[in-house]
């Protein structure tokens, strides 16, 4: 179990590191490197649109990797997803800017983002299943936390890397070439993750299903046919996680540095406080879900998000560093309360023969609704009306997630072989 937990954790940590360095770079420097002819706001929107492209590709990645994960096994597809994600991220660090190759630069950037999105679309479902299907029945929440902890650790590593590059190099060197270093480090990290993943055995639940010749011919179609409620409501439930995280990590970074004129290094340091809150809450609540159940905790997190969306921008607008840290920490606390139990909860909603496709596609469909759309919508609302209106949008999305989880069952005591 230690090896399984490590493999589940290390892969998601690396892949989320890859994704988050793009989100941080999108907020800080990519608009100048790839869209220099646009205004500040238009460049930010264009860069966030490339961010959204990766999310749009994730359900397709979940469908493709889920199909083979449910038919040939979890392990092999997780190796491929890791390679796709890591190599495409490293390639972004090598990609020439607009001044060097013109319009080909943003075109190639979008292409690499598509490959990133496809890889991550197949990653989470497999990593969560690897942990959940190996875990003892009474500790599925705890072991699923290994996959979930990849998110805060990956984000922490991404933020620290950017903070070091920005602090050591200065603004001119950082914006010129220093931002590329975190992307290039992905080549090293993917080699480490690959080494660990290749040593893990196939999951027992899949092996049992394979021995009974129970592999589905078209897993995603069967998941929609057998679990339509879980597919759609699961996507709605997880949406608030993406809304809270990517608004706090991407748009709030842009808003505080550009509009409030807070130095980039100060904001990166304040973000680290929020990431620590995310890590602690994710692990603690995931473990607690083995005791009191997943659903109650997710309901509490979504209800908290309804409230926090209304207060996050008033707190940011104070310009007070302590209150900014509270604003970001509250958003990521909401995420952690839901995200921790979700690692076990979403796989538990589906039967073994379609679990990779069902959990992965539902999770990534929520990513399109929350991660792709939220930063764009919040940015547009803030520019057209006020940042507070963007916060109300966050509250509305949290309310949607609350309604969805209220319509789903508790799963803590389910037998995974008999869903």
TrEMBL record:
GO cellular component, one term: plasma membrane
Domain Major facilitator superfamily (MFS) profile positions: 4-413
Membrane topology: Multi-pass membrane protein
Alphabetic keyword roster: Cell membrane, Membrane, Symport, Transmembrane, Transmembrane helix, Transport
GO molecular function list: symporter activity
Annotated localization: Cell membrane
InterPro entries the UniProt entry points to: MFS, MFS_dom, MFS_trans_sf, Sugar_transporter_CS
Keyword Calcium in annotation: no
Transmembrane region(s): 45-65, 77-95, 101-121, 142-165, 177-196, 231-256, 268-285, 297-315, 321-340, 361-382, 388-408
CDD domains per UniProt: MFS_ShiA_like
Pfam family, one: MFS_1
Family the UniProt entry places it in: Belongs to the major facilitator superfamily. Metabolite:H+ Symporter (MHS) family (TC 2.A.1.6) family.
Functional summary from the UniProt entry: May be a proton symporter involved in the uptake of osmolytes such as proline and glycine betaine.
Protein name, UniProt field: Putative proline/betaine transporter
């Amino acid at each position: 179990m230690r090896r399984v937990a490590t493999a589940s954790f290390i892969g998601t940590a690396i892949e989320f590191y890859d994704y988050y360095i793009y989100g941080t770079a999108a907020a800080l420097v990519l608009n100048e490197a790839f869209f220099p002819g646009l205004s500040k706001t238009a460049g930010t929107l264009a860069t966030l649109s490339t961010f959204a492209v990766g999310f749009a590709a994730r359900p397709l990645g979940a469908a493709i990797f889920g199909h083979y994960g449910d038919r040939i096994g979890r392990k092999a597809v997780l190796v491929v997803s890791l390679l796709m994600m890591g190599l495409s991220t490293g390639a972004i660090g090598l990609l020439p800017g607009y001044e060097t190759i013109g319009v080909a630069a943003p075109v190639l950037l979008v292409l690499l983002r598509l490959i990133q999105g496809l890889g991550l679309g197949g990653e989470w479902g497999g990593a969560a299943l690897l942990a959940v299907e190996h875990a003892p029945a009474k500790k599925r929440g705890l072991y699923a936390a290994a996959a979930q902890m990849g998110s805060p650790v990956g984000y922490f590593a991404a933020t620290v890397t950017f903070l070091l590059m920005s602090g050591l190099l200065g603004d001119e060197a950082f914006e010129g070439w220093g931002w590329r270093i975190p992307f290039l480090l992905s080549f090293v990290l993917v080699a480490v993750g690959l080494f660990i993943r290749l040593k893990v055995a196939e999951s027992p639940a899949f092996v049992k299903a394979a021995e009974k010749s129970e592999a589905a011919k078209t897993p995603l179609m069967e998941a929609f046919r057998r679990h339509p409620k879980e597919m759609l409501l699961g996507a709605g439930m997880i949406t608030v996680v993406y809304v809270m995280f990517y608004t706090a990590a991407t748009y709030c970074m842009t808003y505080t540095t550009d509009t409030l004129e807070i130095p980039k290094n100060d904001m990166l340091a304040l973000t680290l406080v929020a990431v620590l809150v995310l890590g602690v809450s994710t692990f603690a609540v995931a473990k607690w879900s083995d005791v009191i159940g997943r659903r109650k905790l997710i309901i509490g997190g979504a209800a908290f998000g309804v409230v926090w969306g209304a207060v996050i921008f008033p707190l940011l607008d104070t310009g007070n560093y302590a209150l900014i840290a509270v604003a970001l920490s509250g958003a990521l606390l909401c995420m952690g309360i839901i995200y921790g139990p979700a690692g076990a909860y979403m796989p538990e909603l589906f039967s073994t023969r379609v679990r990779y496709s069902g959990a992965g596609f539902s999770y990534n469909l929520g990513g399109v609704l929350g991660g792709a759309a939220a930063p764009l919508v919040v940015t547009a609302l803030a520019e057209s009306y006020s940042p507070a209106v963007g916060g109300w949008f966050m509250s509305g999305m949290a309310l949607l997630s609350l309604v969805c989880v209220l319509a789903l069952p508790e799963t803590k005591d389910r037998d995974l072989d008999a869903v």
